[in-house]
Amino acid sequence: MDLRIDCRKIAMAPRWRTSVGRYIDKLQNSYGDLTHARVTLEKNLHHKKGRVAAVQIVLSIRGATITAHKTEKTFEQAIKSAFLAAGRELKAHREKRKSTEIGMPKETIMKSLLAFTVAGLLLGATACTSKPSEPPPAPSAGASAPLGPPAGAAADVAKAINDGNGHYALGHHDAAADGYEKALAANPNSAEAHFNLGLALDQMGHHEEAAVHFEEAQRLGAGNPAITGSEILKKHTGG
After folding, report:
1. pLDDT for 19-41, tens place per residue?
2. Domain coordinates of the chain in residue numbers?
3. I need a labelling partner for 174 at 20 to 30 A (CA). Which of 21, 66, 117, 122 fits?
4. pLDDT digit string, tens, across residues 2-11
5. 3-class DSSP state for residue 221?
6. CA 5 remoteness from chain centre
7. How does pLDDT run across 36-72, given as a tens digit for each residue?
8. Domain 155-237 class?
9. Contact present, 166 and 192 (Cβ < 8 Å)
10. In which residue ranges of the chain is pLDDT below 50?
């Protein structure tokens, strides 16, 4: 696989290159069909909230291009956030592609079943359906409810968390995760946003990514019993 790492307005630090390489290896080991990756690190001196570290990822795979862009206060945080987002996009694309590939031979399967019927075999009604795709990882049992924004939260953070909670209540976990990510874009130290994002990711079966945010929630919200006492958080963090 071809990997290109660029820096703009800042010199490349060896630890960033190592971190990028580690995340790329992890994605390649998980999906195996990456053909090209371009990672750009850029220092943004004009960001109003001091989030000067911007990372953009462009991944080429069979039949598609995946992109992710994150801006954080440090490049370590931005690299991590961008690769987590890219990983979710890759997984969603792979599941969609798998579903499509499974659906393609449906006509052939139906013809085969019809031939057996003509031959005199008794087939149940369900035998005429195509083979379903593998189910995604199951969410944890007894999911906690997401938390509301804390008192004194900035308006944009509170709005993003409340928007995410509204989607979560409707079962729209993808949209809920987007809301919580917007909250974290405005305030990376929001324990509630990390906790809620962990819940949404857990519901989507993204347990490894959920664990990352539960760990952050545990660290940042050590004084919040709703976070520290969460059974789902404990399952992902080991207590």
Report:
1. 898 888 888 888 777 888 889 99
2. 2-92, 155-237
3. 21
4. 888 988 888 8
5. coil
6. 22
7. 888 999 887 766 566 788 898 888 877 678 888 888 8
8. mainly alpha
9. no
10. 109, 116, 119-134, 136, 142
Assign a CATH topology to domain 2-92: Double Stranded RNA Binding Domain (3.30.160)
Q: Among residues 108, 98, 106, which one has the least CA distance to residue 136?
A: 98
150 in helix, strand or coil? coil
Question: DSSP assignment of 42-91, as one string?
Answer: EE-TT-TTS--EEEEEEEEETTEEEEEEEEESSHHHHHHHHHHHHHHHHH
Q: Hey, how many other C-beta atoms are within 10 angstroms of the C-beta on 175? A: 15
CB atoms within 10 A of CB 14: 7
How far is residue 17's CA from residue 37's CA, in Å, rounded to a whole number? 13
d(CA 115, CA 206): 41
Which residues, at least 6 apart from 5, have a Cβ–Cβ distance to it below 8 Å? Answer: 12, 17, 20, 38, 39, 40, 41
- The Cα–Cα gap between 45 and 96 comes to 38
CA distances from 63 to 59, 93, 100, 155, 211 (A): 11, 10, 13, 41, 30
Which residue, among 66, 69, 4, 62, has the nearest Cα to 35 in the 3D structure? Answer: 62
At residue 91, the pLDDT reads 82
